[in-house]
Amino acid sequence: MIGEKPKKSWFLEGKLSDGHALLIKIDRFPFTVGRDKNCSLAIASKTISRRHSEIYPQGDLLAVRDLGSTNGTFVNSNRVTAGVFLRDDDTIAFAEQQFRIYSSEDHTTGSGQQTNHLSAQQRGANFAAFYDLSKREEEVLFHLLQGKSTKMISKSLFITEGTAKNHILKIFEKTGAHSRFKLMTMYNKFPVGKKK
């Protein structure tokens, strides 16, 4: 059963397999994901089922459930079937299409939505600039923050696993992070407006 619309605004941030970055507000419920063009988020990928999964409100939180897809829905790498609650900065994957979900208090509408979108993009750009990451390292960082494995990163960026691993080690060296978890924690705490 679909609950009332939550007070917070929720967003999905990710990159499609064609390389296009995506930041979308979850503003209608149920929010359906699938290959069908009538879905709230239509993803043109053979790995995505016609109606893959749906996101729906539960109080001030959101939950996701799989709709019997072929390749599965995952939250923080765990496959889900029945409804699973979502939290800020969870990684949600529809087959191999990975996104980060986050919320913000719904103080504004209209132009305020654009500010939220720009803030998320600005954080990534400023983080990369602050730690002197190259353009390629910034791309690898983006995939790391989605929880992708080295193998998945190499496939997404059309590079060898060895090259992907070297970029990851370089990112760790430049940021001082010694693990993916530490890197994600540093990124999430990084002020949006902070610059070098």
Written overview of the protein:
The protein is 33% helix and 28% strand. The protein is α+β, with helices and mostly antiparallel strands and 196 residues long. α3 crosses α4. The longest helix has 20 residues, at 111-130. Mean pLDDT is 83; it is low at 106-118.
Judged by helices, strands and strand pairing, the structural class is alpha+beta
Order the strands across the largest sheet as they lie in space.
2-1-11-10-7-8
**Gross morphology:** globular
Q: Got a strand count?
A: 11
Q: Count of helical segments?
A: 5
Q: Which consecutive residue ranges, at least 5 long each, have pLDDT under 50?
A: 106-118
H/E series: EEEEEEEEEEEHHHHH
Share of β-strand residues: 25-35%
| Radius of gyration, whole Å | 17 Å
The biggest sheet amounts to: 6 strands, antiparallel
**Overall pLDDT metric:** 83
| Helix amount | 25-40%
Can you lay out the helices and strands and say which pair or pack?
Layout: E1 8-15, E2 21-26, E3 31-34, E4 41-42, E5 53-58, E6 61-66, E7 73-75, E8 78-80, E9 84-86, E10 90-94, E11 97-105, H1 111-130, H2 135-145, H3 150-157, H4 161-175, H5 180-189
Parallel strand pairs: 3-4
Antiparallel strand pairs: 1-2, 1-11, 3-5, 5-6, 6-9, 7-8, 7-10, 10-11
Helix pairs in contact: 2-4, 3-4
Key traits:
single chain, 196 residues, alpha+beta, five-stranded mixed beta sheet, 5 helices
What does this entry show, briefly?
The chain has 196 residues and is α+β, with helices and mostly antiparallel strands. It has helices at residues 111-130, 135-145, 150-157, 161-175, 180-189, and strands spanning 8-15, 21-26, 31-34, 41-42, 53-58, 61-66, 73-75, 78-80, 84-86, 90-94, 97-105. A six-stranded antiparallel β-sheet has the order 2-1-11-10-7-8.
